[in-house]
Design brief:
The complex is a heterodimer of chains A (about 120) and B (about 900). Chain A is of the alpha+beta class. Chain A contains 5 helices and 3 strands. Chain A has a 3-stranded antiparallel β-sheet with strand order 1-3-2. Chain B contains 28 helices and 25 strands. In chain B, strands 1, 2, 3, 4, 5, 6, 7, 8, 11, 12 and 13 form an 11-stranded mixed β-sheet that branches. In chain B, strands 16, 17, 18, 19, 20, 21, 22 and 23 form an 8-stranded mixed β-sheet that branches. The relative contact order of chain B is 0.10. Classes of the chains: A alpha+beta (about 120), B alpha+beta (about 900). Chains A and B meet through helix 2, helix 3 and strand 3 of A and helix 1, helix 2 and helix 4 of B.
Chain lengths: ~120, ~900
């Protein structure tokens, strides 16, 4: 995996985690399942990179963690969105929207030269 | 971005490392379990293995998470420190010797630093102390104190001072609770306390009304005196204290921390009532003033200069030095000024010792690190980069010096107690204590020492770098081997000798100076000589006839006492109490008008004093009863005085004007006696004696020569004084003690610098001993072969000693260069010997060479006893 792609994925992963946590606090494994399900299987979360990403986001103060009892009655580490994280999500979502609109726009340009 | 969460996460990771790791494990476990269940449901053959695989390797995963936590560098440092501590504990011998050597060095340096910082650098303990000045008389001939005329003129005319006070320091019989004791007192005007800006802990300080003429006498006392006399500060206010027989009302008590004011140690501070002056002198009053806000010391100097000019013509009859000016001096300078040189000497010596200790430890560290060459190679082979290895060495060295610093701090606390013994007359000694600045100094010293001792090993790591793995192959690599290590050690040994020599020379010069001082002839035989110092309360002895009557009676009683072979009175006491100093003008060679007249110690004595002291009469006559207060004034001079002012002729019959009193009848020199020193053992022996009947002193010494022992003699003297006036508390003097005390300072200084020099020489010896022992161990095989081939043990000793002495000689030569600078510090502390005294320098060099030779001889001797068979068997 080249470095560029990793960065790209990493940025996307953080956005997806923020979005998932904006719905409700959840633990790591649940988060992977939820992202999988929300994206209808398009994004498959690399489980090896999810937890390091969570650590980075904890450090940045976007998310908090605490230990709660899970749906199957076990102690699990739950992550939830902080106020800073909410702002970051709004920020990134807007950025993503602008970027994807721009990319869409570019892709819709007709390749005139070919018809001539 | 808010940095707080990040910091908290990092701190949590460092300080709750175990918990964080446990949580990591638990989270992993949970994830794997859930994933396993999920895969089981979807029909996996080995769901657990698949679950683990999805994480991509558990340890790698953990590392990634830890990495993301971002605490590695700090965590690494903590881990390295733990590792260093474990390693140091394993090598307890090495660690303890470093801690001892460096701890002593840092401890001594910290103690000296604290003294320098407290005594010389920090500000005085008064509010806005930079506005405080002392006021002195200054003229072309020197600097002296003020008189009543000066104090009153300043108080009346000054325009630049916010507050101004006069003070006269002395001692008095003080009786607060039944028994009189002799204590130091400072008589002060009320402005003195106002100028300092201090407040009473209990009661009040002296106020403007207290020093008005006719006001009832008031006194302020220290907490210590209040505690001792009345049992506490609160109990003291309102009580009465008799000072030289005159009752004073205690109006206030000073703060417990105040043992001295304006640099003057005194326990009792009675009010100073100034009498109307009859002439410009006598001097002896100190003055302290607080400058008005915004007034510079130059402006105050101009103000006081004007006052000097205005008052001079009014009192010109008795005081002729027209160049004398009242001069403000920062109070701080007057208090700490004299201590500067002494402390500078101390600081220089201790800095050398500290550097020597560091050099010595550096040698030990070089050996130890090179002994761990293998471990470092293994680490390098396992992927540790240079940065990592350097960090490891740095942390280990810093841990070591931090431990030494802690030991040094403890030793410094002890050493500060020692400072009080070594230098009891340093100013502001009562303020001495370990403080945050001292702790900061220890930290800085430990840090610098740590960096210095890691220099050599770090540079060696940086040099070798990647090539290190190759040494791993030769696993039999010998401890501390390599020409580079050897060169570094050699250089360190050279440095140690270069540092030790100035210490030895300094100690030698001080010792030389001390011995010369000790052999100075004081002019009297102190054995069997005793005295009591008596001061007569002016309240009961108001005029010269009353004091003279007391002096006559006390001398008669002493003469009549069995066992006392001679007795007499004197206003001054050899060897270092010059009492009154008087100026004079010789009638046959007067000084030009308006210039400073010569001055000499001027004790008033009885003829019995010469007899008791054993001072021989050399020429003319001594005093008789005819030399009364009404008779023409006469003096007897010392031989040194005669030789100075009348070389090659007799002074007997010469006449002089004494005390600048041109209207008084001239004084005639009637005799010459032997020399006794009153200006200290290193001082001149000039003296002019006047008969006690013409002196009118209110304090003096009753001096006796006795066949009784010290206890019996002093008991006899006490009862003589008590039989005449029980309110006088005499101060007892045993002349042998007094003479020894006069040598106290030089002796203590010699002892301290001597101890530093001994420590320095020992460290240098240890350094060269270690190096040569190592050389012998390393060349064991070669030496064994030489012996097998018939070399004599003697020639091998010569080989080793000769090899070692190369370093010693080189170091000593460099040390000679360094010691040239030393003379600047030391010059003025010496008596009778120059700073570059060739004999002393030669002696120090010889001593250092001898020490080096002995230190090399021991490993040499071992080399001579190597048995070839053992060497070959070991191969």
């Amino acid at each position: 995996m080249s470095d560029d792609r990793k960065d790209l994925l990493q940025g996307t992963l953080e956005l997806l985690v923020l979005k998932a946590l904006s719905l409700e606090p959840m633990h790591g494994w649940g988060m992977a399942q939820r992202i999988d399900q929300l994206s209808k299987g398009v994004f498959r979360v690399q489980q090896g990179s999810l937890y390091p990403a969570l650590q980075r986001m904890l450090r940045k103060g976007w998310i908090r963690s605490d230990w709660r009892v899970s749906e199957n009655n076990r102690r699990a580490r739950y992550y939830s969105l902080s106020r800073g994280g909410r702002a970051e999500l709004a920020n990134r979502a807007a950025l993503w929207k602008r970027a994807s609109e721009a990319v869409d726009g570019i892709l819709q340009v007709r390749t005139v030269g070919n018809e001539a | 971005m808010n940095p707080l969460p990040e910091i908290l996460e990092r701190l949590k990771a460092i300080f709750f490392r175990r918990r964080v790791e446990r949580e990591l494990d638990e989270e992993l476990q949970y994830h794997v379990d859930r994933e396993t269940e999920a895969r089981e449901r979807s029909g996996s053959a080995d769901p657990r293995r698949d679950a683990l695989m999805s994480l991509g390797g558990v340890e790698k995963w953990k590392d990634d998470v830890r990495d993301a936590r971002g605490v590695l560098p700090l965590e690494e440092c903590v881990a390295d420190t733990r590792y260093a501590l474990r390693a140091l504990r394993r090598n307890a011998g090495f660690t303890l010797s470093v801690m001892a050597v460096l701890g002593i060095g840092i401890g001594a340096a910290t103690a000296v630093f604290t003294v320098v910082n407290r005594v010389l650098l920090s500000s005085l303990p008064y509010p806005e102390s930079d506005r405080l000045v002392a006021i002195n008389q200054k003229s072309s001939s020197g600097s002296w104190t003020l008189s009543v005329v000066d104090l009153q003129a300043i108080a009346a005319q000054q325009r630049t001072l916010e507050a101004f006070g006069g003070m006269r320091w002395g001692s008095a019989s003080v009786n607060g609770s039944g028994s009189a004791e002799r204590v130091t007192i400072g008589r002060v005007t009320s402005g003195f306390f106002r100028a300092l800006g201090i407040h009473a802990a209990q009661g009040r300080l002296l106020e403007a009304g207290d020093d008005a003429p006719g006001a009832p006498p008031a006194v302020v006392i220290t907490s210590a005196f209040a505690e001792r006399t009345f049992g506490g500060a609160a109990e003291s206010v309102g009580r009465a204290v008799a000072i030289d027989g005159l009752s004073h009302l205690v109006v206030g008590v000073l703060d417990p921390g105040r043992h001295e004011l304006a640099g003057v140690p005194a326990e009792v501070w009675p009010v100073l009532h100034l009498a109307t002056p009859k002439r410009r002198g006598p001097f002896g009053y100190r003055a302290v003033a607080r400058l008005r806000k915004g007034v510079t010391i130059e402006a105050a100097a101009r103000d006081l200069d004007g006052i000097s000019r205005r008052i001079f013509p009014l009192w010109a009859a008795g005081f002729q030095d027209a160049s004398a000016r009242l001069t403000p001096v920062p109070l701080r300078d007057t208090i700490v000024g004299r201590a500067n040189r002494q402390v500078g000497l101390f600081a220089g010596a201790v800095a050398l010792v500290l550097l020597l200790a560091i050099a010595n430890v550096a040698t030990l560290v070089v050996v130890r690190i090179s002994a761990r060459e293998q471990e470092l190679s293994v680490r390098a082979a396992l992927g540790a980069g240079r940065r990592r290895l350097v960090q490891l060495i740095l942390i280990e060295c810093l841990t070591l010096t931090a431990l030494s610093g802690a030991a040094g701090l403890a030793l410094a606390a002890l050493a500060l107690k020692g400072v009080r013994l070594v230098a009891p007359d340093l100013p502001r000694l009562s303020e001495l204590a370990l403080d945050p600045a001292a702790a900061a100094f220890v930290a800085a010293a430990a840090l610098v020492a740590g960096l210095l001792i890691s220099l050599a090993p770090v540079s060696s790591v940086l040099r070798h770098g990647r090539a290190r793995t190759s040494t791993l192959a030769s696993s039999s690599a010998r401890v501390g081997s390599g020409p580079r290590t050897h060169r570094i050690r050699g250089a360190l040994v050279v440095a140690e000798f270069a540092l030790a020599l100035p210490l030895l020379i300094g100690a030698g010069l001080l010792l030389n100076s001390f011995l010369r001082l000790q052999s100075v002839d004081p002019g009297f035989d102190p054995r069997g000589l005793y005295a009591v110092e008596i001061s007569l309360p002016p309240a009961r002895y108001p005029d010269p006839p009353a004091t003279l009557a007391f002096w006559r009676r006390v001398e008669q009683r002493a003469v009549a006492t069995n066992g006392l072979t001679a007795a007499g009175l004197s206003g001054s006491m050899a060897p270092d109490n010059f009492g009154d100093v008087n100026n004079f003008d010789l009638l046959d060679k007067p000084v030009p008008a308006g210039t400073t007249q010569p001055a000499s110690p001027w004790p008033s004595v009885t003829t019995g004093y010469f007899a008791a002291m054993g001072i021989p009469r050399l020429e003319g006559r001594s005093f008789t009863d005819a030399d009364s207060g009404d008779a023409p004034p006469v003096v007897v001079v010392s031989r040194s005085w005669a030789a100075r002012y009348y070389p090659h002729q007799s002074p007997v019959g010469k006449r002089l004007v004494s005390g600048g009193c041109t209207t008084c009848p001239p004084t005639t020199v009637v005799g010459v006696v032997g020399d006794v020193r009153y200006r200290g053992l290193a001082g001149e022996a000039d003296a002019v004696y006047s008969p006690i009947a013409q002196g009118g002193d209110t304090s003096g010494y009753l001096v006796v020569r006795s066949r009784l022992g010290a206890a019996a003699t002093l008991q006899a003297l006490r009862s003589i004084v008590a039989s005449l006036d029980p309110n006088i508390a005499p101060v007892e003097v045993v002349m042998t003690d007094r003479l020894r005390q006069a040598l106290g300072d030089p002796r203590r200084w010699t002892a301290v610098v001597g101890a530093f020099a001994a420590a320095g020489a020992l460290l240098a010896a240890l350094g060269i001993f270690g190096l040569m022992s190592y050389v012998v161990r390393q060349r064991r095989r070669e030496l064994g072969v030489r012996i097998a081939l018939g070399a004599q043990p003697g020639s091998l000793i010569g080989l080793v000693v000769g090899g070692g002495m190369r370093y010693a000689v080189l170091g000593t030569a460099i040390g000679l260069g360094i010691s040239v600078f030393e003379s600047r510090w030391l010059g003025s502390s010496l008596y009778g010997v120059r700073a570059g005294d060739p004999a002393t320098v030669a002696g120090a060099v010889a001593a250092l060479m001898a020490i080096a030779a002995i230190a090399c001889w021991v490993p040499g001797f071992r080399a001579g006893r190597i048995r070839p068979a053992d060497v070959l068997r070991a191969e």
